[in-house]
Amino acid sequence: MQGAGRTTWCENPVDAPPDPHAPDDQLMLAYAAGNAAAFEVLYRRHEQSLYRFVRRLLGAPLAAQADEVFQDTWMRIVAARASFVPQGARWKTWAFTIAHNLAMDRLRVGGREAPLPQASEADGGDGLDWLAHALGAQHPSSEDEAHWRAAGRQLLQCLEHLPAPQRAAFLLHHEDGATVEELAQSLGLQFETAKSRLRYALRKLRTCMAAYLEPWERAA
After folding, report:
1. CATH classification for the domain delimited by 125-220, as one of 3.30.460.10, 3.30.930.10, 3.40.50.1370, 1.10.10.10
2. How many CB atoms are closer than 10 A to CB 29?
3. Residues 6+ apart with CB under 8 A from 80
4. Is 104 helix (H, G, I), strand (E, B) or coil?
């Protein structure tokens, strides 16, 4: 899936290439109708964000299982192509929910494994935009690159210490962009429960990241 070992999902030749800007739901329906290239567009569009989500939800103890959960997620998506029907939630939220459920199954089973090397290398980089957006911080200048890198590493450590349900709510909200309503629907929760999980996660992350966020917020 990642790098040289990436799996090719095309099963049949395609006569006409899909519109690369088509909505996710349309691409999935085109794939279900036999347009395998539509799935390639869908896969490339969400490959990195979905892998990052799985990697961060599993955390360091189960990092070695990230590739397997990631591939299982796409296999589930492929298997569901014939029965896929667009619902109220976006396709991306539907896909991330599949990944969430598979990852949470692994977390429930538990087990401790040696963590991979630096998380920032294993999941494709911390991403300044991700941190700035996720925690509402101001985008630091290029001169603050070292400070940012340290903040990114700290954020990953903070995520590790969140309870899994709160970590999942935070990642679904900020990686997938799911609304609280979509969170509740995806996780099978009452609206207020989903809202509380997200609020607690944000509160704990802000406390954990205070040393890095306060200078940015004062400069805003």
Report:
1. 1.10.10.10
2. 18
3. none
4. helix
- Residue 219 and residue 140: Cα distance in Å, rounded? 10
Q: What is the pTM of this model?
A: 0.72
CA-closest candidate to residue 25, choices 110, 88, 118 = 88
Model pLDDT for residues 37-46, shown as the tens digit of each residue: 999 999 999 9
Residue bearing tokens 């989500």: 53
Q: Which CATH code fits 12-91+99-111?
A: 1.10.1740
Calculate the average pLDDT of the chain.
Answer: 78
The whole-angstrom separation of Cα 161 and Cα 140 is 25
Question: In terms of C-beta density within 10 A (0-12 exposed, 13-18 middle, 19 or more buried), how is residue 109 classed?
Answer: exposed
